[in-house]
Records
---
Amino acid sequence: MQGPSTKSFRQAFLENLLISLQLQQEHTSKHDSSSLGAAMSLHERKLAVKSSADVAMAAARGPGARWTRAILAPASSACKVQRCRRIVIRCRGHKRTLKRSARGGGGSTSNGGEVARRLVRRRTMALREVIPGGRDAAVDEATLLREAMDYVVHLRAQVDVLRQVSEAVQRSGSSILQ
């Protein structure tokens, strides 16, 4: 596993992002020639960049977390280009099965305890909806929280790298205009 703040993670993320974006462009140009040059809408571009960034982040993270497998599984089935498949296969190749500890029961039956349990259950369900792979029933709360923390840390790294790329593109664009 590469930490999100390491140079190797950022480098792997950028490499995977560039490959994925190139593949998106190749895929779009093939379809544009057959559809009389219909350009991608802004919304379609946004979705293409987001999915490319998510796949690149999951591939750079490695196969240790559920959320990476949840992101890469649909990408591997939807991706038609061989180079994109190689990225996904390289990342998914080292699957590890994780043993989950059984849930413990118990607790007080007081009214305050019941309200707290309902609140925790409601927030856990909301978290399951946000984290890729969180809807899996086999994930206990402790694993879900670890996955959420890992996912958020990597999302933050993704934002930082994309912000740096955006600033570099803006700087290069402004230097060309001058």
Note: The CA atoms of residues 12 and 70 lie 19 Å apart.
---
Amino acid sequence: MSPKRGPLATRVDEIKSAQPKICRSHCQPTCVNTLIWEHMCFKSITPASRPPPSSFPHSILGNPEREERVRSLSGMSKVKAAPPPGCTININDPQVQEAAIRIQASYRGHRSRKELREKGPPKFLQELKDVLLVEGSAAKLECRVSAFPDPFIIWLKDGKELKDGPKYRYVFEDPDVVALVVRDGELADLGRYTVTIKNPFGQTSGSACIIVEVPAKVNKGPDSIKGKRGTTVVLKANISGEPPPDVGWLKDGDDIEEDERVFFDVGDTNTILTIKNARPSDSGKYEVFVENNLGTDQSFARVDIL
């Protein structure tokens, strides 16, 4: 009974039968050398037991792909190529050294702030300040607070609590900034705002005002009117603006000179022109004019005295 043959011996026999020609030099058949070498490298258990590169068969040494394969299998892969330009850092570069110093300082500062945080009631590091809000824009009330554990925040306007939502937005920015954003500014946003900051150890509060600026505007102009001689004629216009606008009345393009018979009053939201004991000469084109540092507006009306 013939002995059993291993996979390598079987494969060698197959190669010998397929390629019977022998190299006429001192070498074994090229493909046989290669196969035996690759198998031997694979089966080597330790790097010390693996054959040195100088003993590679000629077919391997002459073939870069096979040479690299055997090096890889035997743990002798070539050293990786250096990274391309721009991918390395020169530690002797002054800019690199300065960046390293800044990173270390930042880390030390962060660690110090964390270590210094102690449990206790909230306290202001920076108080709220009054802010200016232009109609149609947004304003931000902002303060800095030290509080640990993290506090509970409430914002109020003129004593009434404000809910976090589309109009009023609560803002928390690390590490200690507390803010309120007021959107779509309007005259009604004018007022005093208060923030109350609480935690289990106590609470503190601070206040500031939002000063709203609104361009002068005639919201509703006077109506044209026909009156009888000797009657009292009244022209009324609704106005707005912050700062409160200057108001003037004109007749046929000229300023009206006030007296006891013809005069006008200016309120918070309106202005009224009064003409007593109306005369035909009072007929004409009347204009109300408003102005502040943000803008001007006017409106016209016709008065006919019959």
Note: The chain has five helices and 17 strands.
